[in-house]
Amino acid sequence: MAMDREKLDPGQGVAGVLDRIRAIRRDLPPTAGRIADFITDHAAEVVHMSVTEVAERAEASEGSVIGLCQLLGARGFQQVKISLARDLVQPVQFIHEDLAPDDAVATVIEKVFRSDMQALQDTQKALDVEAMAQAVAAIRKARRVEVFGIGSAATIAEDMNYRLLRIGVESRASVDSHVQAITASLADPSVAVITISHSGSTVETLTATRLAKAAGATTIAITNFGKSPLLAHVDIVLNTLARETQFRTEAMTSRIAQLAIVDALIACLALADYERSVATIGKTFEVLSAKRV
Question: Which residues are CB-contacts of 16 (< 8 A; sequence separation ≥ 6)?
Fold first, then answer.
């Protein structure tokens, strides 16, 4: 059975996913039917799940999940999640899931800061110390570091690149999907690639990481705790543990957690090559000072 496909922006959902599923459910083959039933019966959970988790719970492949999403008129699983979120949550939750329309300014401040602090505390507990040590060793060994990030992760990638350069690590940030794909395909075993993705399901960075891994690079991911397609293509995982969901438009929890990991990683790298780092920081400080009035 076919359905008219909508031309949508990657950040937009499709209207009425549950209604669309009900409309075509009778004509779906067994595997697609199981996925459709799982999404319908666990819609609130699916909003917080990755495509890998949905596939496992529905006893299907990731490709089958994506195929059903496309049959519903979406480009992929992400758009279906956005649509489900819009159907299930109150409008204020697109700003911050803990807020209420009648919250006072003081209450808004308290809730936002509490959420951010919780993300930092949870991330510290989830972060594997051994994985951090492995990441430090891989970066020190690498001839060059490539940092990938798309969307909200792009600013984190650029910040990390800046921080790496300040301590003398040859680094480059790629925040364009085409540049990422080219850069990844040209990597080799002397390159370390750091991919920043909260969901671990972003198509562009997932593709670039897969290409880099195939080219022989050591791949490192800064991603939220849980199963995701990205994990199949990385050697070292640095987990955040932020409660952000994919439909929240301006939530900072994931980025704050990512920045904390970047901060810790840079500090560990600087201490591991203390003399060089201090010298490079001093030299770059002098250069940057000349730019200040």
Answer: 83, 87
Q: Which of 38, 72, 88 is the last residue of a domain?
A: 88
Tell me, yes or no, whether 181 and 53 share the same domain: no
CA distance linking residue 49 with residue 168, whole number of Å: 38
Q: Are residues 198 and 62 in the same domain?
A: no
The DSSP call for residue 209 is H
59 and 137 co-located in one domain: no
Residue 1 belongs to some domain of the structure = no
Contacts of 182 (CB under 8 A, 6+ apart): none
Same domain, 153 and 261: yes
Cα-only R_g, the chain: 21
Spans of the chain below 50 pLDDT: 1-12, 91-95, 245-250
Q: Determine the Cα–Cα distance for residues 78 and 80; give it in Å rounded to an integer.
A: 5
Query: What is the value of pTM for the model shown?
Result: 0.74
Per-residue model confidence as pLDDT tens digits over 163-218: 999 999 999 999 999 999 999 999 999 999 999 998 898 889 999 999 999 999 99
Burial (Cβ within 10 Å: 0-12, 13-18, ≥19) of residue 274: exposed
- Judge if 22 and 138 occupy the same domain: no
Residues whose CB is less than 8 angstroms from the CB of residue 149 and which lie 6 or more positions away in sequence, other chains included: 155, 156, 157, 158, 173, 175, 195, 196, 197, 205
Show contacts of 151-155: CB within 8 Å, 24+ apart.
151/202, 152/198, 152/254, 152/255, 153/196, 153/197, 153/198, 153/202, 153/205, 153/255, 153/258, 155/255
Whether residues 127 and 243 share a domain: the answer is yes
Tokens 């909003």 sit on residue: 47
Residue 9 is predicted with a pLDDT of 39
Looking up tokens 């960075």 gives 205
Structure letter (DSSP) for residue 122: H
Task: Determine the Cα–Cα distance for residues 237 and 111; give it in Å rounded to an integer.
Answer: 29
